[in-house]
Amino acid sequence: MAPRNNSGVPTAPRKAGNKAVCMVITTPPASPPNPFSNLKQSLKRDKNQVILAVLLRPMFASAMISICGTARAFPGSGGDRARFIGTTQLRFADQADFERLADQRGLVDALLATLPTLDRRVAEDAPDVKAFFTFADTLVQIETNRREAQRKRELEEQRRQQEDTDVPMTGPSSEKPTKRKANVSVQLLLSLL
């Protein structure tokens, strides 16, 4: 008989006739992750809760996307939503990680969907809300600048391709040859006779 743990589930292989059988022990599903807990784990803060670095960008982005979704669904006014999202305390020491954070899939889209639902006037009295708006506006601006630069590159490429097709060919003319009439004077013809 295989040893059993307190729950009565075998923890080691046991023999069933001639064959060894291994029981798979599964743990019950854990509760869904808390986005505020994930946010806290993904950041390095100083004693004043200023963010010094984002240690785990994907975890940070996932937590912020979840928090933005909760804020959009939050009942109440735009000011209530802004205060809720201000509890993230996104006060960064610098914006060094912002370029890489803007690369995180879905983060800028979540911010773009959330910003119109928030009341910006709350930021006047709440530094944490103001810090969130600074963070969100900066990431949105980074993404906007990238899209504009991409659009300019595409237009430049189209212009270059158009120029390549419009280059006149060198060499013989591509026009159909025409019949030319001789420009010989009558006197010259008579003199040849």
Write a concise synopsis of the structure shown.
This protein has 193 residues and is mainly α.
Topology:
Elements: E1 14-16, E2 19-21, H1 35-42, E3 43-45, E4 51-54, H2 57-73, H3 78-86, H4 98-102, H5 107-114, H6 127-166, H7 186-192
Helix pairs in contact: 1-2, 2-3, 2-5, 3-6
Structural summary, described in words:
The chain is mainly alpha-helical and 193 residues long. Helices cover 49% and strands 7% of the residues. The chain is built from 7 helices and 4 strands; from the N terminus they run E-E-H-E-E-H-H-H-H-H-H. The strands form 2 sheets. The protein has a two-stranded antiparallel sheet. A two-stranded antiparallel sheet has the order 3-4. A hairpin with a 5-residue loop joins strand 3 and strand 4. It is elongated and about 115 Å long. The termini are far apart.
Helix fraction, binned, reads: 40-55%
- Report, as a whole number of angstroms, the end-to-end distance: 131 Å
Query: Which residue ranges are poorly predicted, with pLDDT under 50 across at least 5 consecutive positions?
Result: none
Beta-strand content bin:
5-15%
Total helix count? Answer: 7
Q: Which geometry do the CA atoms define?
A: elongated
Order of helices and strands: EEHEEHHHHHH
> How large, in whole angstroms, is the Cα Rg?
36 Å
**Helix and strand composition category:** mainly alpha
**Describe the biggest sheet?**
2 strands, antiparallel
